[in-house]
C-alpha cells in the first residue's frame, strides 16, 4: 500500500491568513474599520509566551491591530476580570483571547464567561458553546474550526462518515464533535474511560486525536485509508538533549496505514492561529453590522 498523503496545515494556514489579510484591507478601504485582537497572558509559561508572540506577529501581518497584555503570575481574579471588562468596553478591540491555562488562583470558567460573547474569538464562552451545540451562528473555537477546514478541503462532503474524536475537552474534543455532527458525520467521542479504545478508533473513517499523550495512537488502531487529524502538541526529549514536538499519533506507523494525515508540527497548530485571525475579522464585521466574508479556500 502507498503511504498516506500528508495534509499540509502550514501551507493551508498561510493561504487562509492571506485571504484574511485581503479582506482586512478591503474593510479598511470600504468601511474605515481595522479589526483589533487583544491577547492576555498571565504568568511566564515559556510555551505560552511563544504562542502569544506568534499570534501578535501574525495579527499585524494580516493588517489588524494587536494589543498584548502581560500580567504577573500572582494576578488576582479581580484584576483579570477588570482587564477583561476594560477590553469588552474598548471599541478598537473586536476579539479577546485569554491564554490558557491560567494560574490556579483564578477560576478560568468565570473569566471566559466574562468576555463579551461577540468578542469571544476563542469561542469558549458558554453562549458560543451553546449556540454551536444548537446549530446557531457562533464564534467557533479555533482548533476545531481548523480541523474542519482541512477535512472539508481534503474530503469534500463529510456526511455519513464515521468520525471518532479521542478527547472530550471543552476547547477541542467537544466542540469538534459538534462541528462534525453539524456536517452529518456519525460521531463517537472517546476519552480516558473508553473501553477498548483501539477497537473504537478502527471504526473511524475520520480519526481525530486530541489527548495530550505522545504517539498514543498506533498504526494498528487505524482503518486502512482513514483520514487522521493529529491535534496533539507534546514537547518530548529529542536527540542531544534538545526538545522536539510530537503529536498524539505515532506518525511513522500511521502514515503507512492512513489515507491522509496531518503532521506535527505543521498541521493543526498553524491552522489554529489562522482561524483566530479569521474569527477576529468575523467579529469585527458583525460589530459593524456588516456581513462576515466567506473565507472558504
Ligand atoms: N494544535 C493546537 O492548536 C492545539 C493543540 N492542543 C493539544 O491537544 C491535546 C489535547 O488538548 P486538550 O483538549 O486541551 O487536553 P485536555 O487535557 O483538556 O483533554 C484531554 C482529553 O484526552 C482524554 N484522555 C487522556 N488520556 C487518555 C487516554 N489514555 N485514552 C483516551 N483518552 C484520554 C481525556 O479524557 P478524560 O476527559 O476522561 O480525562 C480528555 O478528555 C494536547 O496535546 C494539547 O497540547 C490543544 C489546543 C490547541
Ligand atoms: N485561550 C487559548 N486559546 C488557544 O487557542 C490556546 C490556548 N489558550 N492555550 C494553548 C493552546 C495551544 N495552542 C496552539 C496554537 C498554535 C500552535 C502552533 O502554531 N504550533 C506549531 C509549532 C509551534 C512550535 O514550534 O512550538 C505547529 O504545530 O506547527 C500550537 C498550539 C493554542 N492554544
UniProtKB/TrEMBL annotation:
<dbReference type="InterPro" id="IPR046346">
    <property type="entry name" value="Aminoacid_DH-like_N_sf"/>
</dbReference>
<dbReference type="Pfam" id="PF02882">
    <property type="entry name" value="THF_DHG_CYH_C"/>
</dbReference>
<feature type="binding site">
    <location>
        <position position="233"/>
    </location>
    <ligand>
        <name>NADP(+)</name>
    </ligand>
</feature>
<feature type="domain" description="Tetrahydrofolate dehydrogenase/cyclohydrolase NAD(P)-binding">
    <location>
        <begin position="141"/>
        <end position="286"/>
    </location>
</feature>
<protein>
    <recommendedName>
        <fullName>Bifunctional protein FolD</fullName>
        <ecNumber>1.5.1.5</ecNumber>
        <ecNumber>3.5.4.9</ecNumber>
    </recommendedName>
</protein>
<dbReference type="InterPro" id="IPR020630">
    <property type="entry name" value="THF_DH/CycHdrlase_cat_dom"/>
</dbReference>
<dbReference type="InterPro" id="IPR036291">
    <property type="entry name" value="NAD(P)-bd_dom_sf"/>
</dbReference>
<comment type="subunit">
    <text>Homodimer.</text>
</comment>
<keyword id="KW-0378">Hydrolase</keyword>
<keyword id="KW-0511">Multifunctional enzyme</keyword>
<comment type="similarity">
    <text>Belongs to the tetrahydrofolate dehydrogenase/cyclohydrolase family.</text>
</comment>
<comment type="pathway">
    <text>One-carbon metabolism; tetrahydrofolate interconversion.</text>
</comment>
<keyword id="KW-0028">Amino-acid biosynthesis</keyword>
<dbReference type="GO" id="GO:0004477">
    <property type="term" value="F:methenyltetrahydrofolate cyclohydrolase activity"/>
</dbReference>
<dbReference type="InterPro" id="IPR000672">
    <property type="entry name" value="THF_DH/CycHdrlase"/>
</dbReference>
<dbReference type="InterPro" id="IPR020867">
    <property type="entry name" value="THF_DH/CycHdrlase_CS"/>
</dbReference>
<feature type="binding site">
    <location>
        <begin position="167"/>
        <end position="169"/>
    </location>
    <ligand>
        <name>NADP(+)</name>
    </ligand>
</feature>
<keyword id="KW-0486">Methionine biosynthesis</keyword>
<keyword id="KW-0560">Oxidoreductase</keyword>
<dbReference type="InterPro" id="IPR020631">
    <property type="entry name" value="THF_DH/CycHdrlase_NAD-bd_dom"/>
</dbReference>
<feature type="domain" description="Tetrahydrofolate dehydrogenase/cyclohydrolase catalytic">
    <location>
        <begin position="7"/>
        <end position="122"/>
    </location>
</feature>
<dbReference type="GO" id="GO:0004488">
    <property type="term" value="F:methylenetetrahydrofolate dehydrogenase (NADP+) activity"/>
</dbReference>
<keyword id="KW-0658">Purine biosynthesis</keyword>
<keyword id="KW-0521">NADP</keyword>
<keyword id="KW-0368">Histidine biosynthesis</keyword>
<keyword id="KW-0554">One-carbon metabolism</keyword>
<comment type="function">
    <text>Catalyzes the oxidation of 5,10-methylenetetrahydrofolate to 5,10-methenyltetrahydrofolate and then the hydrolysis of 5,10-methenyltetrahydrofolate to 10-formyltetrahydrofolate.</text>
</comment>
<dbReference type="Pfam" id="PF00763">
    <property type="entry name" value="THF_DHG_CYH"/>
</dbReference>
